[in-house]
Amino acid sequence: MLLLIDAHAVRRLTSATFQSLKTLKMASSGRKLGSMTRFQHTLPNLPVPPLQQTMDKYLRAVGPLLNHEEMETTRKYVEEFRKSGGTGEVLQNLLEKRAKEKTNWLSNWWLHVAYLAYRLPVVVHVSPATMFPLMPHFDRTEVRLKFTSNYMRKLMQWKHLVDTDVLPPLKVGNKPVCSSGRQKMTSSCRVPRPQIDGQVMYKPHESRHMVVAHNCQFFEVDMFQPNSNSLLSPPQLYRQLEEVIAMSPDTTIPPVNERVGLLTSNDRDTWAEARQRLTADNMNMKSIESIQSCVAMICLDQPNPNIRDIHDIAMYNDDEMSIACTRGLHGNGVARNSGNRWFDKTMQFYIGGDGGCGSVLEHSFADGLPAIDLVDTLLDYWEGCE
């Protein structure tokens, strides 16, 4: 089903299980803000710490966890491991050889062991969340949608600067750091698989839309003018968001056992099996592909009745602060907004009807620094959207 709205489209992600949506892209501004990756070749390779330093640090780390007898036993094993010609020296030489052949000898191992092979749910265990300043008057739909349309457009502009390599380089103080994480945060998604997960990334021409979640239903929303590289205007995006709301009123909220987004909060092997069954249906596969390939997910959340109608986070009591924080981590459960998420998606932004907003990061594509850099950039724009 394709619904035309002022020549732009919102399409429901549909099938026996899904309800969904449609697509768009953006013109080069021609502005040169400075090559984002110009320092990449100057960054040092990750060094391998000296063996003796590593062993000393290990003993200091385990010290508080062991009693005297256990510590002495551990110390004997460490001394045996690090002696000249011992196992430690052999392994150290192999690490140093690997470090000469790779820019970062640890990154692939870290990605696979710490993230993709990790079988517990990404929710809480892996994915960090941020909580933004409370937004006033978001109980009024027109205020919330006006903000959201501007926010989505700003995110697309940021992505365009990344795609064209004209965003200023990422730095800590005056020192440049690796900017590759910025390129992975949008148009990417984790994919559940048995034993070890996969990842997918999409090129700019393959990712011209966002997915908006509302009432546990998912909608693909065009971000560009038809047959053009020009972004939709905020009023045009606003009309698309209005259509999303109209197509998913409260009366259409699916029962808990049909909220497909909840599957992404499961342990990875269970979710992998469920996804395999879902994607046996062609329409389901297309719907999931739309979610995976979107620039980011925008989650229009229901207000939480357990939080007072205030406009300053500093006024939260302890219980309200916990509720607000857990909305970011997991959506406050199946009775609230947990089904209004797709936790495999690298970047999700939730925008609540009570003014509670923030972001959720699927951690395997990027660490904290590029994610916080993006959030800070959008937060700088936040006040201008009010």
Care to describe what's here?
It is a single chain. It contains 11 helices and 12 strands. The chain has 386 residues and is of the alpha+beta class. Strands 1-2-9-8-10-11-12-3 form an 8-stranded mixed β-sheet, sandwiched between helices. Strands 4-5 form a two-stranded antiparallel sheet. Strands 6-7 form a two-stranded antiparallel ribbon. Helix 5 (141-163) packs across helix 11 (368-382). The chain is globular. The two termini are 34 Å apart. Residues 1-9 and 14-33 have low confidence and may be disordered.
Major β-sheet strand ordering: 1-2-9-8-10-11-12-3
| Largest beta-sheet characterization | 8 strands, mixed
Identify low-pLDDT runs: 1-9, 14-33
Q: End-to-end span in angstroms?
A: 34 Å
The total count of helices amounts to 11
Helix-strand pattern: EEHHHHEHEEHEEEEHHHEHEEH
Instruction: Write down the overall mean pLDDT.
Output: 87
Strand fraction equals 5-15%
